[in-house]
Each structure stands twice: as structure tokens, then as C-alpha cells.
Design a protein that fits this description.
mainly beta
């Protein structure tokens, strides 16, 4: 099971690539999806939503 540590919303033009995709010293999960206002003319959302989570139970 994973426990959510935090969520963050980033404007697409300020997406923190290094922070989101960096190597971790623990088992972690990053869920990235679209958020914010949708622009039909650009066919895209203004933001990305990132959920940061840590593995807290690894039952086998």
C-alpha cells in the first residue's frame, strides 16, 4: 500500500521535472495527471497535478 505524502499543482510551463522524476532513496510513487482550466483552443489543461506517495506496506 502507498500513503500519499502530498499533492501539488504546477503550471505546465513551470513543471519541476527534476523534483518529480528524481531518484528516490525509498519506494515511492508519482502520479501525474492534468488539472486546472481546460483550453479548448489549445486542447490542453493549464496545469499538472502531481501526487507524491511512499510505499508503507509491502505484503507478499
Amino acid at each position: 500500500a502507498f500513503t500519499v505524502d502530498r499533492t501539488a499543482v504546477y503550471p505546465k510551463d513551470e513543471f519541476p521535472t527534476v523534483e518529480v522524476y528524481r531518484n528516490l532513496d525509498h519506494a515511492g510513487l508519482r502520479l501525474i495527471t492534468c488539472g486546472g482550466e481546460y483550453s479548448a483552443s489549445d486542447s490542453r489543461y493549464a496545469d499538472n497535478v502531481v501526487v507524491y506517495a511512499t510505499l508503507t506496506d509491502s505484503r507478499t
